């Protein structure tokens, strides 16, 4: 991992590779992925945080991790928002009256039962839930590449577009 200082903070982080990637190719890889207009603003903001982290990971590779994690958070929020739009509960209240969000897996099950997530896509949604946990493990974080980021961002954009098409 690059140690940031006054001289190198705007220099590319090769991330363990012999040389840094081409900045134009890096930028185009993330800026070319667009989000459908029907995706709610709160979810779209998380996607932009993801994109920003991935873009700036050119200068500091660990930001790629932040970007990938945000993709999975956007998918989880998207599932919760879509359930709420259906009028389905998205929280449970404990004995003390404190609300707790229902799990990502629970919300995916609800959306699948309503037919809003097709069987072919349900596997991808479930993988996102598993990958969210995988990427949080420090041992796995150094394995992430630009291609992982592009896949996470493009898949999140695609799944959210399908979920919020009306």
What's the number of structural domains? 1
Helix content class: 55-70%
What spatial order of strands do you see in the largest sheet?
Answer: 1-2
Residues in β-strands, percent: under 5%
Structural class by sheet pairing and helices: mainly alpha
Characterize the main sheet. Answer: 2 strands, antiparallel
Q: Give the number of helices.
A: 7
The span between the termini is 44 Å
Strand count: 2
Q: What series of H and E elements makes up the topology? A: HHHEEHHHH
What is the alpha-carbon Rg in Å?
18 Å
- The overall pLDDT average reads 91
Regions with pLDDT < 50 over 5+ consecutive residues? Answer: none
Shape: elongated
Task: Quickly list its features.
single chain, two-stranded antiparallel ribbon, 166 residues, elongated, 2 strands, mainly alpha
């Amino acid at each position: 991992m690059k140690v940031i200082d006054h001289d190198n903070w705007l220099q590319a982080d090769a991330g363990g590779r012999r040389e840094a990637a081409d900045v134009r190719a890096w930028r185009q890889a993330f800026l070319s992925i667009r989000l459908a207009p029907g995706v709610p603003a709160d979810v779209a903001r998380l996607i932009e945080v993801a994109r920003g982290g991935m873009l700036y990971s050119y200068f500091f590779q660990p930001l790629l991790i932040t970007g990938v994690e945000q993709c999975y958070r956007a998918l989880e929020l998207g599932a919760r928002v879509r359930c709420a739009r259906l009028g389905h509960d998205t929280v449970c209240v404990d004995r003390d009256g404190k609300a707790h969000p229902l799990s990502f897996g629970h919300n995916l099950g609800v959306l699948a039962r309503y037919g809003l997530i097709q069987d072919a896509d349900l596997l991808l949604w479930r993988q996102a839930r598993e990958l969210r946990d995988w990427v949080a493990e420090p041992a796995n974080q150094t394995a992430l590449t630009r291609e992982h980021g592009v896949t996470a961002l493009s898949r999140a954009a695609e799944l959210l577009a399908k979920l919020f098409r009306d």
